[in-house]
Structure formats: C-alpha cells, structure tokens
Design goal:
alpha/beta; six-stranded parallel beta sheet; 19 helices; globular
Length: 533
C-alpha cells in the first residue's frame, strides 16, 4: 500500500482532541475523527476532558479510536501518580514520585510503574508520559515539586530507571521527562520561557544524570522541555535546539529512541515561536510533535511541516528516520494484547499503593504530639485553608469518629482559628503551596496561622499535604509531617501515623530551606539530622 507524504507527516503528530457544544469530549468527537481521518496523526493524548466517568467507557472510547485509525495509534496519557493523574476514579492511583523518593526504595518505583502500566494497557492506552526525571533543586519550582523523586541527581536516576524498567515490563511506553531538566527553575514553562543559567559541567553533574540512567536501562522515549540552556544553546529552548536534541541527546548521550516534544501550545513556545515551532522542533531532531488543544493550531503546524518537506527545507531522509523510530515503538508496544480489566484497581495493586504510601509518610519534627493521645480524641480538630482538610478528617474519623473538621475561610480564618484554640487541645492543620490550576490559597495568611497555633497550642501538628517546603515559611515548628500529595493513599497513611497504627519511616528526599533553624523535637527525622544538624 502506497503511503502518501501527507500521511507520513500526520504520523509525526500526537494531538489532543476537544468537544463542541453538543458533544462529550470523553467520546470520539468530530475533532477526534478529523485528527484520525484527515490528518491521520500518529497518536492521541488524553487530557482530563477526555476521561470518561467509568473505566469501561474509557476503554471503549480508546478501542473505537484505535479502530478508526488507519495505522496503529499511540494513545498517550500523563499518569505519573500523585497529583498528576488523568485516570482517578476506578483505577489505582499511586503516590507521587517524591513520596516514592521518601521510601528510599527504588524497587517501589519499579513495582508501581509495572502495575500502573498493566492498568493503562487494560484501558487501551499504550504510552505513559512518565517518569519525571527532573532534579527538584529549587523549592520555588512552581510546576515540578512532588513530581520529582528528589533533589539528589543519583537518587532521581535510580528511581527513574526503575520506573522505566517497570513500564517496559508492564508493556507500556514510558517517556522520561523533561529533557534536559526542569527541576531548577522558578518559572512554569506552561506560562513563560524559563532559563537554566548554569555551565555545562553543572548540567552534566545534575540535570543529565537521571536521563543517562534512564537511557542505560532502555527508555523507549524522552520528552523535551521548553527551557533555554545558554551553556548549550544561547538562542533556542531545548525543544527547538539542534544542539540539545541532536548534538547532546542523540550524539553525546547516544539515545536512539523516540523524542517527543512537550506540548507546543505551552506559552514558552506559543508566545515566542508560534506555528514555526513545529518545523524548528523537527529540524532540531525530535520525532513527534505534541499539540494538545487547538484544532486550528494543529492544522497550521501540520501544514507548516508538510510545506517544509515539500520545499526541501526538511529532507525526506530526515522524515524517514523518525518514521522508522515510530514504527519500531509501535511494533513493540501498540500491538500488545489489551490486559483483562480485572487488573484495574485489583487488590494486589491497592495493597502495593498502601505499602508505598505508608512507607513514605515523613515525621520531620515531633515534640511528642505524634501519635495522638487516645484520651484527647474528643478534643482534636483538623483544619486549614486547603481543601484536603475534609479528606484528612474523614480518614481520621475511621479511627476517631468524634474528631472535628473545620474548613477555614480566607476572610474569617483568623477568627475561626482563635475560636478553635479555645475549644480544642490538639489542632492538626493542613498546609500547601500555591498549586497550578487550582484556586490559590493565601500562603502568607497560612504562615501566620501556623505561627499562631505553634505558639498557642502545645499539641499543634502541621501537615504539608503537597510539597515539604512549606516549613520554609515558618520561623519555628514543633510538629511537622510531610505526605507529598493528597492522592495515592497518602491521606489514609497519614491517619494511620497520627493514630499510632503504624510508625512513620519516610525520609525527606529534599532539603527544606531554613529547617536547621527550627527547634528540634524529640523524634526528628534521621535524614534531617544527617543533612541539616
């Protein structure tokens, strides 16, 4: 069968699909049909809008998409675990990467990746945009945070490599991201174009270490990042840089698998390069162009790449190189039999999730308030500005039904807290940073409340429900627990630690700035002692 140039160009694209007013985006919409029938794209990516209410409905949609496609289709998803998950209801959501790092056991990353891959295959998906190999050195990083295993490059490499092996054995493509590293930025590339200003030696010793480890164990794919690394290319971000994609990744590191861009509609690219970014990325050496949202942009980028090939700007040899890598990955992964749906959220996977979560909870500081005293059960309240307060309260009520739960309101939080201090002897407060894509909590107000409670209530416990860095905003704290996310069994594991059903064994995988200045409690985490005191 003759494959036209237009069909070949379509195979270089992975696109998201949307719904019109009379459609449901979790089904095969007219946009999805256009991508498959007209552009004949190589893959589709699932975003939250594309996830059906049941796993059965999702699997049915994915099977329909595959049947419409004239060639085997990549069906991709960001199912990292923790806070970045697309499938939530009815599947096993595993803890975040940083929670895995807190367990200090890379075998956990292997096992959860393998189990996650099995569930994704059962849903008819064949490519997970994970694991994150970014080294989260910067506490101000607004987009990576708990998606990273650690601030330690070697440790990140060990866990990322284990996750790659788990995906491979589970029969799903992994995409190690975000090359060459998004861990030391204070800017979200979804919103603007960041720069990592370090010299090449520093990049080799920090950012590249996990990617080298992942390549060594056979990662089939790597995802790019939209960041400028002046030590390598002073003009173009990594996604569009021949020096980074070909010179560094292909030639120096010897990577021969698939390179896929992060979404080309992110502001770091869209605001600075527009449609031309698709051509520049392909010229740089990537194989697949990810365009997640807008039909007009997808059509324009497709037309731009097609025109570049027709004009000779991009050679057919270069196109065939990428098509060969695409065919190789599809032949290995896309044709695998779909796993029985009985594996989804099965007892073994849930038990694995709980084991990892319970091993991750980290008691950073304890002046004697943890575990909670049984005699105080009627005088305990869970509170905070973050919405996870209710989740924590419900988890604790499984053990102590009389525990109170009070969701603070920003405009009356101070008055609410003052009332709680006079009423309860033990106060547990959930803390969180500013979170992308959620209503922003007032972190300055949150810090004031923590300071007040820490000084006013002997048995006050602060729980960092997402990133462990919250403590950098407190001048002192006597009782502090980190759970690295409020999905994946972490809240339930926290409740077990609080009531003394289990002993916390997690160790901080990152440095908390200024934690050395905080007063030391009786049971400070061993890692904190080793690193900071």
């Amino acid at each position: 069968m003759t494959v036209t140039l237009e069909q070949k160009i379509g195979q270089l694209f992975v696109c998201g699909w949307i719904a019109e007013a009379d459609e449901d985006a979790s089904t095969v919409t007219r946009h999805a049909e256009y991508l498959l029938n007209e552009m004949q794209v190589g893959g589709l990516v699932l975003l939250p809008r594309n996830v059906a209410k049941t796993v059965q409905a999702s699997a049915q949609t994915h099977a329909e998409l595959q049947s419409i496609s004239k060639q085997p289709l990549f069906i991709c998803v960001d199912q990292e675990g923790g806070m970045i998950t697309r499938f939530i209801d009815g599947v096993t959501v595993f803890p975040s990467a940083m929670a895995h790092g807190a367990t200090r056991n890379p075998d956990n990353a292997y096992k959860t990746a393998c189990a996650n891959a099995e569930e994704l295959r059962a849903l008819g998906t064949n490519w997970n945009f994970a694991p994150v190999a970014d080294v989260n050195i910067n506490p101000l990083n607004p987009i990576i945070g708990t998606r990273s295993y650690s601030e330690n490059p070697k440790m990140v490499g060990e866990f990322a490599a284990a996750a790659v092996r788990g995906h491979n054995d589970g029969g799903v493509i992994s995409a190690v991201k975000h090359f060459p590293g998004h861990g030391d930025t204070a800017v979200d590339s979804h919103l603007a174009l960041p720069t990592v200003p370090y010299d090449l030696q520093r990049i080799q010793e920090v950012e590249l270490v996990p990617f080298v480890a992942a390549i060594e164990v056979g990662t089939p794919a790597i995802m790019t990042t939209h960041i400028i690394f002046p030590a390598i290319d002073q003009e173009r971000p990594a996604t569009l840089s021949h020096k980074v994609m070909t010179g560094l990744l292909r030639e120096q590191l010897g990577f021969s698998g698939l390179i896929i861009t992060d979404c080309l509609e992110m502001k770091a690219i869209e605001d600075n390069y527009g449609v031309e970014a698709a051509v520049l990325a392909f010229e740089a050496g990537v194989d697949l162009l990810l365009v997640c949202h807008t039909p007009a942009t997808q059509r324009a980028m497709y037309a731009a790449v097609l025109a570049a090939v027709q004009s000779g700007r991009i050679s057919m040899d270069r196109v065939e190189q990428s098509l060969a890598r695409i065919r190789k990955a599809k032949s290995k992964f896309v044709g695998l039999a779909v796993v029985d749906q009985a594996v989804i959220n099965c007892a073994a996977h849930v038990a694995l999730r709980d084991t990892v979560a319970e091993s991750a909870v980290t008691v950073v500081k304890n002046s004697g308030a943890i575990p909670l005293k049984a005699s105080a059960a009627g005088s305990i309240v869970v509170t905070g500005l973050h919405f996870s307060v209710e989740n924590i309260g419900n988890a604790l009520k499984a053990y102590c039904p009389e525990i109170a739960v009070v969701q603070l309101k920003p405009d009356s939080a101070i008055e609410q807290i003052e009332e709680l201090v006079g009423k309860y002897s033990t106060i547990i407060m959930a803390t969180a940073p500013l979170e992308p894509w959620r209503d922003k909590i007032d972190v300055a107000l949150q810090a004031r409340l923590v300071e007040y409670l820490n000084n006013s209530v002997e048995n006050f416990i602060a729980v960092a429900v997402r990133e462990p860095y919250d403590a950098r905003n407190f001048s002192c704290i006597r009782n502090y627990i980190c759970i690295y996310g409020y999905r994946g069994g972490m809240v339930e594991a926290l409740a077990k630690v609080l009531v003394g059903a289990i002993t916390a064994t997690g160790q901080l995988p990152v440095t908390i700035p200024n934690v050395a200045a905080l007063p030391v409690g009786e049971n400070v985490s061993e890692t904190v002692l080793q690193k900071y005191f």
